[in-house]
Amino acid sequence: MKLIKGILFTLSLLGFSSASSARQALTYDIYHLAVQSQSRLERDIKRDATRHPKEVLAFFEIEQGQTILDLFSGGGYYSELISYVVGPKGKVIAHNNQAYLPFAKEDLDERRYATRLPNVTTLLSEANDLDLAAGYFDRVFYILGFHDIYYRDETWPEIDDEKLIAKLFHSLKPGGIVAIIDHDAMPGTGLETAQAFHRLSSEHVIKKMTQAGFILTDSAEILKNEADPLTISVFDKAIRGKTSRYMLKFTKPQLH
User: Residues 3, 34: contact at Cβ < 8 Å?
Assistant: First the structure.
């Protein structure tokens, strides 16, 4: 991709003469350069202030050449950023189900994956019907969607949580990471917060993921917001776009 070539050219101008020093500088700067790309959409840039994308990409260890599934990718905010980082030798699978498409239409119309981001492939599938190759992905991004596993209405197909998480485990390479960010709920609350507020306490995510064999290897409070009461809908005008969110890093164990 043009971004990666531009990064390497910039590094040469800055005097990184050896391959090793250039690689070190590229690793250090690639998240910043992805976020600062002039190719990004204006609607995405406006969201950066509350999403802290550079820190998120670094925390989940996104690297060049990786193959990444962006599960329930919505309008593709992270799909695009990840595509810049993984570069021409990497791949991004931007997944959505049918119910997501009306909400993401404006973003996706402007995103134009086929012409703007050739290393991104779209995948339309209901969660229960996902067919993912074994040991294929280096990372799975699951952003603001885990709570929807437990949401129910006539427009949203019911999701089998154990089946979906097992598919993620199956499709991830050993040592691979599932990146989960979601709207927090009050500690000790049940699954009902998914229905009432589109929120889910992190304890449920940790329980489900570890039961499936994943290891919780890290967490971060980069997206925490103390002003969020955690007891109102994420669509409430008082908090929309500014909810307190947890970041959880789950790793598939290495083979022995």
Answer: yes
Q: Rounded distance, CA 59 to CA 56, Å? A: 5
Q: How far apart are CA 116 and CA 39, in angstroms?
A: 9
Instruction: Say what the pTM is.
Output: 0.88
If we measure between CA atoms, which residue out of 149, 59, 115, 154 comes closest to residue 78? 59
For residue range 140-175, what is the model confidence (pLDDT) as tens digits?
A: 999 999 999 999 999 999 999 999 999 999 999 999
In whole numbers, what is the pLDDT of the chain averaged over residues? 91
Distance CA 177, CA 4 (A): 23
Tokens of 41: 């959409």
Q: Convert the pLDDT of each residue in 91-123 to its tens digit.
A: 999 999 999 999 999 999 999 999 999 999 999
CA distances to 47, 93, 102, 103, 155 from 58, rounded to whole Å, are 18, 19, 31, 28, 35
Quickly list H helices, 36-92. 42-45, 48-51, 53-59, 77-86
Gyration radius from the chain CA atoms: 18
Sorted by sequence, the CB contacts under 8 Å of residue 113 that are 6+ apart come out as: 76, 79, 94, 120, 121, 122
Q: How far is CA 47 from the centre of its chain?
A: 15
Identify the CA nearest to 126 among candidates 103, 97, 164. 97
Task: Tell me if 81 sits within 8 A of 105, measured CB to CB.
Answer: no
